[in-house]
Design the sequence.
């Protein structure tokens, strides 16, 4: 039987120490709840599947500074060279690199009349040829890929086609199939010919991160500086860096081949802020819980010192050892639960502030609840040892101590 | 009722061994009021602690209420203390954060008594010591004599067979001491066996039986009791 009532009224009468501890617990819960929510948000951002063959994709930049080079032709030749290198599965030009933090964004409308047409959400706008899908390792789930003879070289060409990511298709067309739909970019018509399971854009924090389109344009000829993606098995990638440079310089030495990165590296770099944030917050949560545990242990030890005679008296009056342990556990659970409830509510208020200030999502109630449960575990660990010590105080302390 | 045979108690510290009790023999009968006197350090508190199962002893035999209590487990002796023994301490030992009713209730809660029975007993015990009207007061709001009466109420509430008191009047002035003594006498008359350690020879003489502890051994003066009374 737990003697909650007298413990509670005793607590209410003893003032400062429990109040300070209570404040500490309130703040801990409020902070831990919000921090663990943010940690979890960041972790789940980082854990999203990209849908790309991340560790099989090697990217690099190519800069042609020889004015005599015909970029259009050179782009085709270079891609041929890349594809013919040993161990290369496929290679392609791309106007932007997935997950890289920079790229193109666009939107389509569903009719030629700008005033009445309905717009799709913004999407990452990949321009590439029929090889791009294979290089990315993205999965076509409906329709078809482009064929070699369908590839345009300029945004002004006709015969535009697009592959759209499944999330974008869902968001705009719902359950209806987008295949065969004609969309517009200004006056220009684009026909949707395929749906890709997953195709993330360049900006990992963007709400439209999963909305993407690949349009049938090999744009590589229009610029002297461009990026390529080469797909190969991970074990072949280190050697490929050298092979690629060698082959491309052999073709024409008047250029720079640089900035080799696998998509895995790009992804890690992009998410490094999130990882840092999650790490720092995790350390903070652990420290806070540790400090709270120390506070609890300290207060229990102080109380045991102060109450030696009282504990002896209780033992003399018939308390068993477990009654004494129970006393300290219940006392601190009470502080912890009261502090937890107030702290939990405070964390929701705090969460609301953070939400409006930094447009974070609302802290779900489960986080304060989990924080309080975590705190109860910490309380148990922090209190049980000194409480067991208190239980060993001899009943003779009732007559012996002053 | 209480029977100690050849009890000895040795306190061992790193440097010294203290023989607090040696070959200690005592029989106390049901319903007796025994006053224990003796010089400081002679072993009175040690005797009372052993009698009240507050501490163990080094050798000898001890039975309480006909039951050998020499080797009780910690939980069992807690149960015996709770059910059979009432304690009164020199320093009252009330719990400062609990009001009078809650203080008196402490041993009843350890007995697992239900709330209505606890309430009834707390009220009647506090009535009995004349503090029925002050149940919600805190110990610090009371005089020493009143606090000791609360402690007596706490001891009585459990309806113990034994009352053990270690200098219950040691912290009280003579008027209050006399009031407490009268209360104890009343309780004794209702059948509770009382063993009281005291330094006050006048109070001791009022008890039915006097024993003196010297150097951890009993000098039983019960047979001289009539003479002692006669000198008053
Ligand atoms: N915990 C202990 N450790 C060591 N020695 C102790 C302990 N408790 C008591 N003693 C010693 O045992 C002896 C008897 O002590 P006890 O407290 O029983 O005496 P007392 O008769 O109650 O004295 P007083 O009248 O001063 O209260 C003393 O010499 C004391 O120092
Ligand atoms: Mg003493």
Sequence:
């Amino acid at each position: 039987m737990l003697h909650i009532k007298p413990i509670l009224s005793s607590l209410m009468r003893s003032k400062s120490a429990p109040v300070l501890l209570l404040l500490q617990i309130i703040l801990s819960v409020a902070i831990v709840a919000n921090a663990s929510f943010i940690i979890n948000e960041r972790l789940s951002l980082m854990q999203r599947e990209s849908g790309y063959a991340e560790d099989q994709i090697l990217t690099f930049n190519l800069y042609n500074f020889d004015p005599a080079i015909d970029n259009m032709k050179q782009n085709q030749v270079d891609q041929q060279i890349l594809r013919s290198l040993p161990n290369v599965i496929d290679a392609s030009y791309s106007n932007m690199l997935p997950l890289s933090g920079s790229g193109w964004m666009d939107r389509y409308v569903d009719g030629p009349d700008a005033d009445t047409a309905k717009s799709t959400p913004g999407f990452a706008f990949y321009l590439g040829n029929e090889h791009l899908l294979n290089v990315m390792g993205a999965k076509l789930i409906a329709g078809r890929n482009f064929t070699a003879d369908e590839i345009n070289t300029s945004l002004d060409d006709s015969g535009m086609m697009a592959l759209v990511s499944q999330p974008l298709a869902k968001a705009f067309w719902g359950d209806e199939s987008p295949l065969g739909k004609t969309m517009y970019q200004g006056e220009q018509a684009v026909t949707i010919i395929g749906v890709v399971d997953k195709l993330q854009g360049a900006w990992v924090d963007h709400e439209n991160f999963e909305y993407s389109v690949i349009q049938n344009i090999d744009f590589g000829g229009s610029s002297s500086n461009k990026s390529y993606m080469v797909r190969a098995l991970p074990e072949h990638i280190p050697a490929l860096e050298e092979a690629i440079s060698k082959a491309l310089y052999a073709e024409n030495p008047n250029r720079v081949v640089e900035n080799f990165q696998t998509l895995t590296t790009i992804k890690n770099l992009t998410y490094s802020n999130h990882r840092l944030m999650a790490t720092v917050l995790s350390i903070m949560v652990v420290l806070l819980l540790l400090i709270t545990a120390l506070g609890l242990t300290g207060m229990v030890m102080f109380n045991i010192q102060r109450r030696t005679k009282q504990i002896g008296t209780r033992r003399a009056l018939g308390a068993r050892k477990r009654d004494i342990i129970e006393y300290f556990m219940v006392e601190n659970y009470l502080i912890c639960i009261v502090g937890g409830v107030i702290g939990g509510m405070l964390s929701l208020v705090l969460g609301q502030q953070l939400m409006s200030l930094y447009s974070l999502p609302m802290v779900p109630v489960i986080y304060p609840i989990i924080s309080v449960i975590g705190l109860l575990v910490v309380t148990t660990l922090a209190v049980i040892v000194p409480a067991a010590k208190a239980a060993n105080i001899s009943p003779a302390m009732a007559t012996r101590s002053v | 009722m209480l029977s100690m045979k050849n009890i000895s108690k040795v306190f061992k510290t790193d440097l010294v061994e203290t023989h607090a009790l040696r070959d200690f023999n005592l029989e106390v009968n049901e319903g007796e009021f025994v006053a224990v006197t003796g010089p400081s350090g002679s072993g009175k508190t040690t005797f009372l602690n052993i009698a009240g199962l507050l501490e163990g002893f080094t050798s000898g035999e001890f039975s309480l209420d006909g039951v050998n209590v020499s080797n009780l487990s910690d939980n069992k002796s807690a149960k015996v203390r709770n059910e059979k023994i009432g304690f009164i301490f020199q320093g009252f030992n009330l719990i400062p954060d609990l009001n009078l009713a809650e203080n008196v209730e402490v041993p009843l809660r350890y007995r697992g008594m239900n709330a209505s029975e606890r309430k009834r007993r707390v009220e009647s015990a506090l009535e009995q010591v004349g503090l029925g009207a002050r149940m919600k007061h805190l110990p610090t709001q009371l005089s020493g004599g009143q606090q000791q009466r609360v402690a007596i109420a706490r001891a009585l509430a459990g309806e113990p067979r034994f009352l053990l008191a270690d200098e219950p009047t040691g912290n009280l002035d003579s008027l209050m001491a006399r009031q407490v003594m009268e209360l104890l006498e009343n309780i004794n008359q209702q059948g509770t066996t009382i063993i009281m350690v005291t330094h006050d020879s006048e109070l001791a003489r009022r008890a039915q039986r006097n024993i003196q502890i010297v150097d951890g051994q009993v000098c039983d003066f019960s047979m001289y009791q009539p003479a002692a009374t006669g000198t008053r």
